[in-house]
User: Fold this.
Amino acid sequence: MLKDITLGQFFPGKSFLHKIDPRTKIISALLYIVAVFLCDSIMSFIILLVATLILIAMSGVPIKIIVKGLKPLIFILAFTTIYNVFFYKGDTPPLVHWKFITIYAEGLVFAVIMALRIICLLAGSSVLMTYTTSPIMLTDGIERLLSPLNKIKAPVHEFAMMMSIALRFIPTLVEETDKIMSAQKARGADFNSGGLIKRARALIPVLVPLFISAFRRASDLAVAMECRCYRGGSGRTRMTKTRFGARDAFLFIAILLLGTAIVLSNIYSYYFPIWLT
Amino acid sequence: MSVPFIKVEDLIFTYDDEDSIDKHYVLKNLSLEIEKGSFVCVLGHNGSGKSTFAKLLNMILSPDEGKIYIDGFDITNPDITEDDLFEIRRKVGMVFQNPDNQLVATIVEEDVAFGPENLGVEPSEIRRRVDSALETVGMSEYATHAPHRLSGGQKQRVAIAGIIAMQPECIIFDESTAMLDPQGRAEVMNTIAKLNSEQGITVIHITHNMDEAVKADRVVVINEGEIFLDGTPKEVFSNVEKLRRAGLDVPQVTELFYDLSHHGVDLPSDILCEEEGAEILSAWLKK
Amino acid sequence: MTKLKLVDVNYTYSEGTPFRKDALRNINIEIEDNCITGLIGHTGCGKSTLVQLLNGLLFPTSGEVMFDGNNIKEKGYDLKTLRHKVGLVFQYPEYQLFEDTVYDDIAFGPKNMGLPKDEIDRRIKEAALFVGLEERYFEVSPFDLSGGQKRRVAIAGIMAMDPDVLILDEPAAGLDPIGREEILGGIYSYQRKRKNAVVIVSHSMEDMARYSDKLIVMNDGEVFMQGNCREVFSETDKLLSVGLDVPQITKFMRALKSKGIDVRTDIFTVDEAKAEILSKMGGCGNA
Assistant:
């Protein structure tokens, strides 16, 4: 069920990463993602894995939760792994050659690399951002990072506000969808049979009430926000005033070092093809 | 005596119905004064105009005619500035019916902070206000929870905390208990009573539930856009027939005493709670 | 006759995960024809799960659900027909309306059953009559109606499916006293005419005392008490011990008895209380 998705959900806590300025975390996450794609050698992957584990440790988020969060990715992981194992064409003699199946050593290695990349990419970036930063802090960080765009009259604050409200209402609307579907099923609606067109039509009794309810909620919320003196971004303060500190500098330098280490290990250690031959 | 906190004079509010030429009156010539620190319950059936009345008090709607003074300040003045308007909304907070549709943030404490943030309060002061507001409504342990996992009563208490954090002088509860179960309703009613008695906040509670009105200092019944009854709960509920005509109920004990007095039994008609009633009736029967 | 029977039913959410939660334990109940059954309990006591088991929207983790003597878990059991025979009206059903006109919306269920046009028409008119919806509303968009009228349309939509068992989850939630009376009274007269099985889920002891023949009280996922209203309400202490309420009039009679007046305490309507007290007064000779 949609409700069970934990990836991208905030995990409240007071760890090292929780205390870091969201802006630092966003930039670090971007750098981290670049670092993941730079990995090209065994040594670099070992460095990446160690670094990711350290990041997870610094976040205070239990490994169990992270593994659970990765579950929805199982299909993507399985697909890329199978694809690489069976369809990668290497230069070395194939390991297996049976009827139409040909498996190369490079394919196996490449499959492992891709799987590791995807896992590290998601675990690392979600630990850096979504798990340790509440959606409001995250949108706040984005707002402040993009604030130079205010000079060209881009609605940065409005954009950030929209994002955080969307995040707030997704679970509510998911629950509501479940409820409306059950209610229409009780009226004999059938969502699971017939062709594509029939199925699409069967969704009308769900979508119409859902949209109407979403609009009603939006207008209620707008009134409630006005009653709480909301008038856009100007003159607004924030409860958690973040500023860059020693922690931020530390994370920043650590991520830069990670990138450097990966690049250096790429240059000075063997590339996979050489190692294989 | 000082100026009443809220003073409403000859309020008229209409809305145009596309299908009819006549204006549809929601409120007609409504006048009312509310003292600072009082706990007023506004009763009325759906469509009686009670909710419209609430929304006029902090200018979510504006009246066609009539004057509204908040703390001596005329909020219906056409020259009112935006800053004045926001000051009114800070002073007169509002909690709505649907608990889901008034929470903005994904974390309880960040939602409570939303109001003070809009007011431009210093971060350390916001922190202090958020903590004390959550404490007041008894939701401190849920400070870092996601609102959508809370019960209806808990969500409403968070919404109340969000208003308290703006340090209002008056809070209007616009049918804030209508969608709650008995437990949630009790939670919210206890919180409301506490705010009124301990913090001296003026409370205007809009409802159609007479059990809740029993707890107020004063009950105002609105019917067909007009004030129909106004007085202490005892005074108002002794008008059983009139209340029924206005589409409202009375507590079962009040109804029993009313019925008995119609059978020629000489009993008071302003009994609200069962203990009081039992006391009086047992004394009468033992005579 | 027994229409629906639950035998040793258990229901567990998220089995095999850390979020595992027992929603229902050891439920044994029977829903009978020609009877209004009231289902009472706190939010989270398992009522909502239970009603979804009754029409096959959910299946028990263990135990059997029997409809007309047939196990609905059996291979090849026609669930679609079951849902036609066991109608379920969810809480706040007005939020499920979607058609352009009131008529079409009520027709949605009967149409899904594949009924002929004139039969659908007959049923719509009959259902509208039960809920007190005038025919002049038929061609109006349901979204232009008031909240109470929308609710009637939604309930009529299920009544028009002519179910053997009609289940309503909090049909009067959020309505004012008149609205409650009209909706519940409508359901009552519908049931008395159709003589089918009706299940009403409610928080209101007063409403249940007035409209139901039999009560099932749930607490913490289990059936806590069941029987007719008198049997259930005579055990006030037991109800209060789990935080459930009894009608105010029942509490009043108990208070009266504790003051040394010898009255019956298994009373739950104002009329009964009046008769009882008048009979005591008869002894005093003045009423």
